[in-house]
Amino acid sequence: MSIDHLQQLDKIVSLSKARGFIFQSSEIYGGLGAVYDYGPLGAELKRNVREAWWKEMTQKHENIVGIDAAIFMHPRVWEASGHVEGFNDPMIDDKQSKKRYRADMLIEQQIEKLHKDGDIDEAEKLKKLLDTSGTREGLCEDLHKIIMDYEIKAPDSGAFDWTEVRQFNLMFKTQFGAVSSSEDDDAVYLRPETAQGIFVNYKNVMDTSRQQIPFGIAQVGKAFRNEVVARQFVFRMREFEQMEMQYFVQPGTDEEMYDEWLSKRMEWHRGIGIREQYLRVAPHPEDKLAHYARDAADIQYRFPIGWQEVEGIHNRTDFDLTQHQEYSGKKMEYFDQSTRERYVPYVVETSVGLDRTILMVLCDAYREEEVEGEVRTVLKMHPKLAPITAGVFPLVKKPELQNLARKIEDDLREDFNVLYDESGSIGKRYRRLDEAGTPFCITVDFDGLEDNTVTIRFRDDMKQERIQVEHVSEVIRKETKNWNPS
Questions:
Q1: What are the pLDDT digits (tens) for 405-451?
Q2: Taking the CB of residue 99, how many other CB atoms lie within 10 A of it?
Q3: Cα separation of 344 and 318, whole Å?
Q4: Core-most of 28, 101, 123, 476, by most CB within 10 Å?
Q5: Containing H/E element for 364?
Q6: Per-residue pLDDT tens digits for 288-298
Q7: Do 227 and 31 form a contact (C-beta atoms < 8 A)?
């Protein structure tokens, strides 16, 4: 029996802790909200996803190079980018419980409630009001009016006693230097995104790497957002990791490049084993585009919490480089040798959350299957992402079997992450590695001592084959290359 894809998120959370994928940060002290640590398996999974993205972006494209920009940046960067003035969420406080909520999310929850109650017309009416609410200047007033008109109550206290809606800046501010003061002259921010580190280095990278338009700059790095309402495991965190690529193009070619990168990025998600029926492209409506964007779309995954964004593709026009040119006084123009013209490049951005991608991989891989009257929990993720590629087991604890198993382990470790396990029955060892997402298990028995063979067991269908010891690496590579999600 295979369970439906939309299993409860708490099963993923429970498995993540039990098998060492993801832990609550500072758990022994009660935890720190919306901050998580990656355990042994999680660290390997994260590294594999990161490397899959990096290889796709840089190794497979001769005109995309990487950088690793600092987390701290000059405060003027965030003035130029608009984050100081406009990087806000509309918040409202419940006077009874003193808890703070995002106003738009309260309304979205009310829409969901109306749908569950069967009041479809009222839900659609409320959704239309939310979709047409004002931006920036009029947003707080519009959201407050909706909450008041629909008498939306606080989720925790059940009270209807709200403050006004007001904007709350999401950037973490800290002091820079040996002496801190209450003034803002030494204030800096933890970066809320990694993109600006690319934009301010655009000229340095182009000059030192001898790139010509079109070319891209890729970066993987930490970002920080002081989310007041952070929930749903690692989907929304205060400290998270982004994988971004900014592609600099000639104005007039931006729309074609935007379409091309949207297609490429969808193909990458399918290529790491995500089932196509749980992926979709959600274009942003024109009236909901960010102020810097000519076009934008989300690549969404159908999480247990519904369709949610994993990656954003944006045509950012020349907004970022023009802003930094104005605020810094430094020219950001590109001189095209072939046409003898100067222009500020347009930018097509691909921005994917590493933590959200990991959650997507875990959700997509998670299965519960009935096997001989028992439930088998298994993570059917792509073998190239699996934290442990292969388990190596001696059938029993006998020196001759242990010696051969250890030799196979040592040979495989040159190319794969391998786990040696001799504890418990073979069945229990299989189940442990099924939950870890390990695609291959190699068992050494007494017959193998005679004919130099081992049994390889495949995670997805539990089939077993007898193969020569010298062919183990070859079989793993072949099966990994030909793997398809099911």
A1: 999 999 999 999 999 999 999 999 999 999 999 999 999 999 999 99
A2: 15
A3: 6
A4: 101
A5: helix 354-365
A6: 788 889 999 99
A7: no
Domain presence at residue 83: no
pLDDT tens string 349-362? 999 999 999 999 99
201 φ/ψ angles, rounded to the nearest 5 degrees? -100, 5
Q: Is the dihedral of CA 429, 386, 239, 163 positive or negative?
A: negative
134: Cβ contacts below 8 Å, ≥ 6 apart? 141, 142
Domains in the chain: how many in total? 3
Instruction: For residues 135 and 224, state if they share a domain.
Output: no
In whole angstroms, what is the distance from residue 476 CA to residue 454 CA?
A: 13
Q: What is the mean pLDDT of residues 251-258?
A: 96
Strands (E), 108-214: 166-169, 172-175, 187-190
Contact present, 151 and 160 (Cβ < 8 Å): yes
Structural domain that includes position 408: 388-481
Contact criterion met (CB below 8 Å) for 459 and 386: no
Give every CB contact of residue 44 below 8 A, 6+ residues apart in sequence.
387, 388, 417
* Among candidate residues 80, 81, 76, the one with its CA nearest the CA of residue 185: 76
Task: Specify whether the backbone of 313 is left (phi greater than 0), alpha (psi in -120 to 50) or beta.
Answer: beta
Using 50, 70 and 90 to split pLDDT, how confident is the model at 121?
Answer: confident
Query: In Å, what is the CA distance from 187 to each residue of 5, 15, 71?
Result: 46, 41, 14
Q: Residue 290 has which token pair?
A: 């960010």
Task: Compute, in degrees rounded to 10, the torsion defined by CA atoms 208, 210, 214, 218.
Answer: -40
Residue 119 is assigned to a structural domain of this protein: yes
Structure tokens at 143: 């959201």
Mean pLDDT over each residue of the chain, to the nearest integer: 91
Q: Looking at residue 271, what is its pLDDT?
A: 97
Residue 206 parent element (H or E): helix 202-209
Q: How far is CA 350 from CA 229, 315, 334, in A?
A: 25, 9, 21
Contact 197, 70 (CB under 8 A): yes
Same domain, 341 and 219: yes
Give the span between the Cα atoms of 384 and 48, in whole angstroms: 7
> What predicted TM-score, i.e. pTM, was given to this entire model?
0.86
Residue 318 and residue 241 share a domain: yes
Question: Per-residue pLDDT for 179 more than 80?
Answer: no
Rg (CA), the chain: 26
| Three-class DSSP category at 110 | helix
